[in-house]
Amino acid sequence: MAENLELDLVEISPTANPPVCRIVDYKKFLYELKKKQKEIKAKTAKVVVKEIRMGPQTDEHDFNFKLKHARSFLQEGAKVKVEVFFRGRSIVYKDQGEIILLKFAQELMEFGKVEKLPLLEGKRMIMIIAPKKAAV
Predict the structure, then answer these.
(1) Would you say 78 and 52 are in contact if contact means Cβ atoms under 8 Å apart?
(2) Coil, helix or strand for 110?
(3) Residue 54's beta-bridge partner residues?
(4) pLDDT, tens digit, for every residue of 93-118?
(5) 109 shares a domain with 92
């Protein structure tokens, strides 16, 4: 039948009993399959991670400035990676770094939730905040 119609016999579901085949133009079938996969890929959400760096002795004005930026990033739907970087001997002030990060998370409670609590990795303490889902 496929040869009479000058089309191709395509096996759709080989695991079914009996196997399912369809008479279609194979080139067109492949084109539509790629088109569907491209559409599915376009619909997936891309995760954007914005980074904010501070020191253990960050001043109140700088803290509020960075907080404002983090708030706008979360409203755009991006994750925020907040990092306290310890230079030289400032590694002694680990507790200050953790306090700054927790205060940062506290200020952003209405815009995002903490995905990863403060964790010391080498000379930096990192915390990740994910945006809250907007009520639709």
Answers:
(1) no
(2) coil
(3) 84
(4) 788 888 999 999 999 888 889 988 88
(5) yes
Identity of the amino acid at 129 = I
Whole-prediction pTM: 0.62
Contact of 90 with 58, CB cutoff 8 Å: no
Tokens found for residue 101 = 């990060």
For residues 118 and 113, what is the distance between their CA atoms, to the nearest angstrom?
Answer: 13
Amino acid at 114: V
- Per the structure block, which two tokens stand in for 100? 């700054």
Cα(11)–Cα(61) distance, rounded to whole angstroms? 66
- 56 and 37 assigned to the same domain: no
- On whether the CB atoms of residues 108 and 67 are closer than 8 A, the answer is yes
- Give 58-88 pLDDT, tens digit per residue: 889 999 999 999 999 988 888 999 999 988 8
- Residue pair 62/53 in contact by the 8 Å Cβ criterion: no
Same-domain pairing of 71 and 114: yes
